[in-house]
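thread: overnight batch results

M.L. [08:02]
morning all. the overnight job finished for the chain we discussed friday. pasting input first so we're all looking at the same thing
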Amino acid sequence: MNRKRLFILLAFFSVSLILLIIRVFYIQVQIGEKLAISATSQRISALEIKNHRGNILDANFIPFTNRVNEVYVVIKPLQLRGNENAIKKIANILKIESGQFKRLIDFKKEPIIYQSDNNTKNLLIKENIPGISFINSLKRYDDRNSIAKHVIGYLNKADGVGQAGIEKSYNDILNLNIKSSIGIVTDARENFVEGLGYRFINPLNHEKLHVKLTLNYHIQKIAENVMDKSNLKGAVVIQNVLNGDVVAMVSKPDFDPDKIDEYLESPDKALFNRAVASYNLGSIFKTVVLASSYMKNHTPPSNFYCPGYLMLGDKEFKCSSYEAGGHGFVDVKKAFASSCNSYFIELGINTGIENILDTAKKFGLGSFTGINEQGIDEALGYLPQLDKYYTHGDIANISIGQGDILVTPLQVSNIIATIANGGIKNTVNIVDSIVDSKGNIIKKIKKEQGERILSKKICDNIKSFMEEVTVSGTGTKANLDAYGGAGGKTGSAETGQVIDGEKVVHGWFAGYFPKINPKYSIVVFVEDGKSGGNVAAPIFKEIAKTIIEKGL
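M.L. [08:03]
and the structure it wrote out:
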């Protein structure tokens, strides 16, 4: 190649480069603003469909939310306008008034969204009508399938923000702050842009974060089914006795998370989580009195006579055996199994109020369990303070659980779990961690801490008495001898309230199973259940039996 030709090529490329630079400068500087305006005049007018949220999962990654399929029917007015026959067919299938639907088609350009189901979708597909699309999604809640509602909580319908429970406490984590939408592409004059049409905008390339709980979906479902069948107001709490994890938390009645407005004035207080509310305890507190007696080396009487009452000064304290003339001579095992008030009043006075209240405090009464730090509101309960003089009458009431002491079903569950595992009080957990879509832990929430508050020997003694309760005592309706045995304690707690001339008496049963190497503690609380042995104990048995049969 000669030098003249090289010079021509160099000149050509140099001129081309200069012209390109001039053109870029002209576009970016001289007419850049004008082009930007022109570009933005073509836009999408979007209609939001739903806000995307992370899931709330059980301990085995089974979702509590987004379990049910739902379908959005998307009507495209500009593609249906003038097609009278198609408009009537759609209105008929969607069960909407055809005249009103036609007016929407005539005047709207934006997509029209109807929430529907698969049956309706299939009917519309068969008609092969143009101008219809479908979006398959997942429904956040479903009244027939949603469980653990008081734990999960609910959303504000207006903005999709969590209003209660885990939904509220972990809203910033669960809320992706992105929404699917469908829109129409228009120019600056709001005219439909041919060829671009309607667009579905689904910005789901973002990584979701999920909240993993300690709850077991299947155990939660079992407990709720049993409570639903009983049609009683109350609560059930189930804990893993080895680590303190809450595996089920039930409060009945519950609610439809999609219709919260209907429950705001509910006379049954359906939105109220009874599992973490304060109540009078009744005879289950005898477990604490007995533990306190052993801890302070006060040997319980081995030959106590119960005539059916105990006189303290001029006040008579009746035993459950009052009408029968008393329990007669009892040792500690029989007294506990038959829930003898006379025996435990005597034991409480001999043990001393300071010791009893100190032991109750060690068990966690009067304190938060810790799930309040994990997003579930809970009551403190109430434990009297040693800032006043306690008469023998005061101590008598406290010793049989009829005094000022208030507890939550969750606190009671932890007492039973502590005794069942041999004396270690574990930190209670209901949230395990924040995880990504692959199950990788992003943040650990669960606290794994335990403190020995009772010796194994003391626990073994108390457990032998609790097991006798289900064999020959007040809790025979909770007997699980055919399934490995169980231990427990009944409670019938007087509240001082009177409704329609009858005293309000709460029914309790708190126990563990199986007898050897206990796995779970279960507390059943029945609001105004009258008798723990007759009402709460059978619920305990059915829940425990089903868990065992299903190998959970």
